[in-house]
Amino acid sequence: IAKAAGINPRALRYVALEGGGEIATALLGGHIQVGSTDISDSMPHILSGDMRLLAVFAEKRIDEPEMKDIPTAKEQGYDIVWPVVRGFYLGPKVSDEDYNWWKASFDKILASEDFAKLRDQRELFPFAMTGAELDTYVKKQVADYKLMAKEFGLIQ
């Protein structure tokens, strides 16, 4: 965000927090001015008017009545898409047979109507990847984050 806005990232103070609950507490307590978190963590505070949502870091707006007027970062001139990826990971000693069973099970769950209903209730975007596709995606994201951190002088 800083890079897209032309702000030197080293001029900002970064605060490491553990998840949406801590971010909401810090924002509502006035300890930080801005934070990035899941919409599902923030909905009660947004609906109460205690927190304002500035942008959605997705390809499209959230298709919910309360959120439909919140623009994406791209609509505001910032070429940023930053999906939150949740995953289940297996250790290196898991057999191929067990790996394939888990992959098939998650493929089935992710394609189900019940899962779609739960996802929608939690204001989450559809994002269903498993197996090699998810592995490739995560590795690319990590490489991109490392490159950005290096550009910003946050790592060597």
Automatic annotation (TrEMBL):
Domain of life of the native organism: Bacteria
Family, similarity comment: Belongs to the UPF0065 (bug) family.
PANTHER family recorded: TRICARBOXYLATE-BINDING PROTEIN (PTHR42928), UPF0065 PROTEIN YFLP (PTHR42928:SF3)
Name of protein: Tricarboxylate transport protein TctC, putative
Lineage of the species this protein comes from: Bacteria, Pseudomonadati, Pseudomonadota, Gammaproteobacteria, Pseudomonadales
